Structure formats: C-alpha cells, structure tokens
Fold this protein.
Amino acid sequence: VFVLMQEVCSRQSIDRVLAELASMDAIGHVSSGAQRCTIEVLEVGPRLDRGRLERLPAVAGVLDEPGQVLAACHGSPPRATEVALGSRAIVGGRQVAVIAGPCSVEDEGRLLETARAVAEAGAVALRGGAFKPRTAPHSFQGLGNRGLEMLGRVRQETGLAIVTEVMSVAQIERVTAVADALQVGSRNMHNTPLLRAVGEQEKPVLLKRGWSATLEEFLLAAEYVRQAGNPHVLLCERGIRTFEDYVRNTLALAIVPEAKRRSGLPVVVDPSHGTGRAHLVAPMCRAALACGADGLLIEVHPSPTRAWSDGAQALDLGGFRELMQGLGPLARACGRDL
Ligand code: PEP
Ligand code: MN
C-alpha cells in the first residue's frame, strides 16, 4: 500500500501521515525525489484505516501497486517530454531521430568513415559501444577508455551527438565526458544503483528494455532515473525473449504507442537487436515509424562481415543510405520528418 501525496506537500503533512501510520501500528517509508512524494506502508495490519489516511491534509490517494503510483504520479495524459540529443536534435517532437553506428567501437578510421556516412544519410547521432556487455566472457568486451577517446575525437570532427553505453557506476564520469546520451543496456535495466546514478547526471539517458521486462517494469526502471532528478529519458524497445528463435529477439512494437501514452517519454526502436538479421532491419524501421516511434537506433558498419560484434544485424553504409531515402516519405506520411 502506498500513500500518494499531492504535488505540493509540506514536511509537516508527511510527518502527519507517518504519525497516523504509527498509530495504526504501521511504518511509513518516505520516497521523495524529483517526482511526487509517496509513503509506502510497511507492515499493513488490521488497524490500517485507508479512509483516515485519505482524509489527511495533502494526501492525494491511497494505492495498492507501484504501477498505480506510477500512473497517478504522471497524470493522464502525462506531460510529453522532449529530449535534446546534442545541440542539433530534439527527440519527442516532429522529427524522428536516427541514431546509427557500429555495435562496438573498433578502430578510429572506420568509426570516422561510418560517422560521416550516417551523418550524410541523415542520422543525428552516432552510436558505438566502448564498454560492451557480452554474453560470453571470451568475446570482445569493447575497447574501453580507448574507445571513448575515439568517440570523443569523432564527435569533435563531425559534430555528431554520441550515444554510448555505460555499464557501471564507476564508468559514469568517463562516459559522460564524451557522450551526449548515456545508454543503459538491456542487461542493466534492472541495475537500480546504475539507474539512480545516471539519474543524477545532466545528460539524457537511453534506457533499453530488459529482454524479459514487462512494460510496467520498463516504465518503473525509467522512473528510477526520473525520480533521481533526470527527466530526460529515451525509452528504447529492443525486442524481448520469446519462443521464436528465427529472430534474435521479438520486437514488441505494440508497446511503442502504449509506453508513450503512459509515460509521456519519447520511444526509440532498435530493430537491429530486435531482429538480429540485417534484412529485417528496414521493414521493422518502417513499422516503427508507422506505430509512432520517435527515434531509431540502427547498427551500421562499413563491412558487416568483418564487424567485431553483431555483424549479422548490421547494415552496410550503402544499405543505410538506401534505407534512409525510403524512410523520408514514410515519415512525412506519418506526420513526421526524418
Ligand atoms: C547494443 O546496443 O549494442 C546492445 C548491447 O544492446 P542491448 O543492451 O539491447 O542488448
Ligand atoms: Mn550490438
């Protein structure tokens, strides 16, 4: 059980709820951050009187589930959030933002070549991992700091915004120094200390859906970031695990409009990890635009067969250019620009 306080509430009214809970043999856990103050009722016993709590000053309501708290906190419809990506792009407005680049940063020449090609084709940001969360410890783990330095120089050279992953709290300072948005990967969606820590940063956060996370769990993970003070979250649908094994993951496009409706946050679709197969990337990009995606995260590599990670799902530079040419008219038909 949660007591939801009104948007404006004093310390006194919180203390009043705590005292009232104590008189009902319960303990209140106060949670206040950038979002609405809530008080979780610990040890709900027979003496809990919900009506009495509801009538206290500055109490907005008494709710049963975190999902209800989430919905009540943001109102319906929630206020739409726009997220700036570098100095050139706003995600969540009319423009659909395309973020493209290799899975991993491998080599500066190739990174620069890719950056120039994707910028020319219309991407607003370059993606590329320096810290790579890999399934096997034997696999390439990313260039780490050296990769970050390359991203920093390519950012200088091209003016592209940089989106790159941060895997741990200890990496945040180094990643923030070069990134325009901090990517939290699917494996880390449940890492609450990391979510809180990126929530204390000024840079926007691209939060990828955990591959077994429900929509509500996904939105609650975003709430950790927002609660810590950072409202600039881009939700990223990147596919979930199902019994289907032809595709690497099952891209769950139905959550795109629903996640937007419930959170007011922009939603980015990643058809690369969402399919694992390069030839499915373009059709899923089109489907993503049609269902209201605010951005696309696409893996691109100058020579996919030689990529150090995720080559099977990467488009080559020509394939990406062609894809972008096709998406322009579709975006306009959907009332958007690319
Ligand atoms: C990635 O974007 O390269 C990545 C590792 O994605 P995910 O966290 O969705 O698996
Ligand atoms: Mn990848």
About this structure: The CA atoms of residues 193 and 293 lie 28 Å apart.
